[in-house]
Predict the structure of Helix-turn-helix domain-containing protein.
Amino acid sequence: MDSMRRFNTISEYNAFNNNETKHPLVSIVDLSKADPRSGSRMYFGFYIVFLKDVKCGDMVYGRNTYDYQEGTLVLLAPGQVAGINSNGEIYQPKGNALAFHPDLIHGTSLGKRIQEFTFFGYQSNEALHLSERERNIVLDCFSKIDYELERGVDKHSKRLIVANIELFMDYCTRFYDRQFITRDHIHQGILAKFENLLNDYFGSDKPQTIGLPAVAWCAEQLNLSAIYFGDLVKKETGKTAQEYIQAKLIDMAKEKIFDGSKNINQVAYELGFKYPQHFARLFKKRVGHTPQEYRSLKS
């Protein structure tokens, strides 16, 4: 799994999988046409979506292993590295992949919206697990794109191809929303663990030594990517992960402010603020009063 293959163009990836290049910027790749291979890591210079039909080894993103099974949809953005760890065994790839270059979508509705599809930034344990019905919808989207590619390039093809990719992205958004609910056994207790993590953090000396807890740090402690973690918290609570952390911070601050043996600057330092004025500004924004005003109101 140490070898690295680099694919900067769609045609390079098509050639690797014995597929014809019908369009230089987009392809529906039939992975069953590829030669049998052993596992390797791959760098992609374009967007790529894998729909695998068989479990042929551990799907790896970067250095992490996907929560991967048959029928799993894996979505990668340009510049990401993924691959299969087959433990040295030869396997026959099966399934389909949608590959499209960023140049295809520049100046289109999809190009303007592509940053909305945060699932391209999800990492280990965060792939999209499809029901049979959802899988058929994905294959139908792929089929429509491939139909346009078979017809050849004309004045309508780019618009129709991009529109179908955008439709596919919207379906993926719906499927992930469903997964946040139906795979609750996977996410069970994430918010409780997040809450406990923050309680332990603020109950230790970490705020004074490390500073305020960052979203990325919290996500790492919970074995999730920052983007997936943020989306999960937002869907479950209606707050961003940063807002959730700030709400916990304010709750802790309110308790500490009532300790008359400490001045406001000490409270700020204990909570992880390097500059007390930053604490005062955040507290005023969230509570409507400065820390000193709040202490006076409650005394």
In short: The beta strands are 4-7, 26-30, 41-44, 47-52, 58-61, 64-65, 72-76, 81-85, 95-100, 128-129. The chain has 14 helices and ten strands.
